[in-house]
């Protein structure tokens, strides 16, 4: 492989699910580490956030849209997106939410993205206060 070649994982979510030990300290996905992954990414980007958890439903809200990348929001939930400027072996967190939750949805200035339809996720997103520029909601495994 020469320097122009890039390694590409085409089935990212199945790869993550088969190899959770590569991404979670406990070796298995867990809600606390997933929340921490999302929170760390947002805070390192200089955004303030609010996190709420009610049972298995987790909601992260910010007053700025951290998903504004110039690419469709849906792509953030479909593949690994390295962020070497934030440290060694760091990635955006959205694909991990997609891989390790039962359902998820996100809405904000840059657009929306959703997994399979879920009544709780949809209801939570529909009650979003206008001060929030990005909301991410997911149901823990």
Task: Describe what this molecule looks like in 3D.
By secondary structure, the protein is an alpha+beta fold. It has a single domain (12-140), classed as Histidine kinase-like ATPase, C-terminal domain (Heat Shock Protein 90, 2-Layer Sandwich), CATH 3.30.565. 28% of the residues lie in helices and 21% in strands. It is built from 5 helices and 5 strands, in the order ααββααββαβ. The protein has helices spanning 12-18, 31-44, 73-76, 94-99, 119-126, and strands spanning 49-54, 57-62, 101-108, 113-114, 134-140. It has a 5-stranded antiparallel beta sheet with strand order 1-2-5-3-4, sandwiched between helices. Strand 3 (101-108) and strand 4 form a beta hairpin. 26% of the residues are buried. The model has no long low-confidence stretch (mean pLDDT 88).
CATH architecture tag? 2-Layer Sandwich
User: How many structural domains can be distinguished in the coordinates?
Assistant: 1
Low-pLDDT windows of residues: none
- Average pLDDT over all residues: 88
Find the count of extended strands (DSSP E, 2+ residues): 5
Distance between the termini: 38 Å
Radius of gyration: 15 Å
Report the portion of residues in β strands: 15-25%
Number of helices: 5
Order of helices and strands: HHEEHHEEHE
Approximate shape:
globular
Question: At the first level of CATH, what is the class?
Answer: Alpha Beta
The largest sheet, given as strand count, sense and whether it forms a barrel, is: 5 strands, antiparallel
Spatial order of strands in the largest sheet: 1-2-5-3-4
Within CATH, the superfamily carries the name Histidine kinase-like ATPase, C-terminal domain
